[in-house]
Each structure stands twice: as C-alpha cells, then as structure tokens.
Amino acid sequence: MGVLGDDPRQLPRRAERAKEFRRRKVFVTLGTIRPYRFDRAVDAVLSLLRPEDDVVWQLGETRRDDLPGHVATEMPGDEMKRRMREADVIVTHSGVGSILAALELGKAPVLAVRSEVHDEHVDDHQRFIADVMEQRGLAVRLDLESPSVGAFERAMNTRIGSGDVTG
Fold first, then answer.
1. Best CA proximity match to 107, nearest among 76, 93, 86
2. What is d(CA 9, CA 139) in angstroms, rounded to the nearest whole number?
3. How far apart are CA 141 and CA 133, in angstroms?
4. What is the pLDDT of residue 55?
C-alpha cells in the first residue's frame, strides 16, 4: 500500500481520470459572413460540452441566448488570437483565416463545415478546404450530424509544427 492506503498501481489510472475531467477551454469561431447563420455548428458543439468547460463563442450572424460562457458577435483580431492561444480546443468554420491562425499557434482546429444546402454559405468551398486540411493531418472535422467528443480529443492531442504546414 502507498501513502494513505493508495494502491500505487491505481495512481496512473487516477491521473488519467483527473485529466479527463479537467476543465477544458473551448474557443468557437464561426466567422462573420452575412447573412448566414450556423446553428448546426452551435448545436454540435453544445452536445459535446461538459458543465465544467470554459467556452468562448464568436458567433457572427448566429444569434443565440442559450449558450454557456462568453458570447460575442464579432471579436477584434488580437482578442481572437489570445482566445485561440488560451484554448485547449479551437472549433472554427472552415474559413482559411481562422484555420491559419490556429495552425500558427501549433494547434489543430476542429472544423465545422458550412454547407450551401443548409443555407450556411454561398457554396460548398469550405468542404474542399476541410478535405485538404484533414488529409494533411492539420485539422479534425466535426461531424455536424453525429458529433463525437473524439474530434475534440484528436485535436487536443495533435500538435502542428511549421514543417507540417509548409512541407
């Protein structure tokens, strides 16, 4: 027996469980393209959040009053960069600027892809961007129809180096 009666063989398992339940910082940025809402992304993220998670939302045209955490329509670039740097998980629409900002910080973003058929964008170019990012191992796609916390976990466990982006 260990200190206070703990079985030392149980300590690694306890450490893993503590890691599982630590408060995650989640930053969600949906862009600002008008007039397109992106409720499917918000609903998918909501389904994956834990009560203890610390969440910041930049929603653009998506107006919601049912969200935990800090909510903003738009956000200055320096604040967005700071929020991304502080985040454990960055969920973003598949916009090039947001993706590149996450990659510059060495973080793999979780991509919520806007769709023309759902009236979320003018066309489906974000799907093509997400395909390339995912194929290169630079991002993780969030399945908006059947969200899985595995997307968050994969993104949190992926670190991006400058050679990954340019090579």
1. 86
2. 36
3. 9
4. 98
